Amino acid sequence: MSKIQMTTPLVEMDGDEMTRIIWRMIKDDLLLPYIDLKTEYYDLGLKHRDETDDQVTIESAEATKKYGVAVKCATITPNLARMDEYDLKKMYKSPNGTIRAALDGTVFRAPILVRGIDPYVRTWKKPITMARHAYGDVYKNTEYRVEGPGRAELVFTDESGRGTRELIHEFEGPGIIQGIHNLDKSIEGFARACFSYALDVKQDLWFSTKDTISKTYDGNFKAIFQRIYDEEYRDKFEAIGKEYFYTLIDDAVARVIRSEGGFVWALKNYDGDVMSDMMATSFGSLAMMTSILVSPDGAFEYEAAHGTVQRHYYKYLKGETTSTNSVATIFAWTGALRKRGELDGIADLVTFADKLDEATIETIESGKMTGDLALITTLPEVTKLDTEGFILAVKETLERKLA
Ligand code: NAP
Ligand code: MG
């Protein structure tokens, strides 16, 4: 069989620890035998980020803007422990944060549903896609530790030098202050990304914030969504019998649990961060969730939603058997390859991506899975496989489907 040819390279962002090991296995076992894989490679492994003063992360984001499609491996966000472990020059920012800020995109996360891995919430029959705003708020904050009594104010100086001041608090003792911001332009991009995505998958769009408390800040998000919906999208939603609706985040949480799924739920940056981890767990596992960053000018970055699975990596380094779930990383690759195939008109590449997805799901449904899923599955006959064992089982299913 001749290999599938590509025309435009994928931006490949390699990463850290166990996911870096899985990355290699997926390429060697599931991709390179079938595709003449064209990628522009960026090593976002922490060591190389340190060597390049994190320049490589910025370059990989620029390349994503240029080519339009990237696939990213999970990466370490350094903390104090990592500073020691990798002898870093600096405590670099989260690569995901850097890339999100550069692309000003929205992150869409959806569970990968598999028979035998049932959601914890019994009413959920369809996937719930989380849309997380990827700019600003606490991710671009300025924080200050107040050591003693004093007056904290919010000061804004306009271009002409005129200032406005707003009292935050008269401190009588030690405490903390935080300043955050967002931009109408970014919120508008977020809103449009959500409306287009929901139309694309023909689902309702929900949006929720805490505008009863944060009347100006969250109120601004609510107003922008409503205006853009009314001006640009209402007709299109009504034409397919779908709707946009806004509700307070507390109300939304209750409704989501009682729903049967099948909609897109848009959230601000922090709400989306926290809720998507909860949703992933409720649907089964963080390793069974896709994550796509979509920029307003149409660049796509595909990744797994989980981290670098450090605990498994240390076992791997000691030569112990690991059973790390590679499904989300496989789906990151297939998502990127499918998108590349669609953009470049390469039908074979799209078909290959579909078949690899199906092969992955069918392998699990046949009872072959990694330990995390073996613990929660309702299937009666289960074979727990090690990390590469699972990837090779997927390969076997794939070979059958390609034959
Ligand atoms: P994590 O890598 O997601 O792992 C947390 C735990 O969840 C694991 O110890 C494991 O549980 C389970 N798990 C996660 N993914 C799994 C998989 N694919 N297969 C099987 N089990 C899986 O989170 P973390 O340990 O908090 O973070 C490790 C590093 O990842 C950190 O340095 C963090 O900065 C980074 N991180 C990166 C990203 C990203 O790049 N997108 C996202 C989050 C975190 P058991 O150990 O119980 O088996
Ligand atoms: Mg998170």
Strand arrangement in the largest pleated sheet: 4-2-5-16-15-6-7-14-12-13
The radius of gyration computed from the alpha-carbon positions, rounded to a whole number of angstroms, is: 22 Å
User: What's the average pLDDT?
Assistant: 95
Shape descriptor:
globular
What features would you describe in this structure?
The chain is α/β, with parallel strands linked by helices. 44% of the residues lie in helices and 21% in strands. The chain has a ten-stranded mixed sheet, sandwiched between helices. Strand 12, helix 7 (217-239) and strand 13 (244-246) form a beta-alpha-beta unit. Helix 1 packs parallel to helix 14 (387-402), helix 3 (55-67) runs parallel beside helix 5 and helix 11 (327-344) packs antiparallel against helix 12. It is globular. The termini are close together. The relative contact order is 0.16. The model has no long low-confidence stretch (mean pLDDT 95). The structure holds NADP nicotinamide-adenine-dinucleotide phosphate and magnesium ion. Residues 74-77, 96, 286-287, 303, 306-311, 324-325, 372 line the site of NADP nicotinamide-adenine-dinucleotide phosphate (NAP).
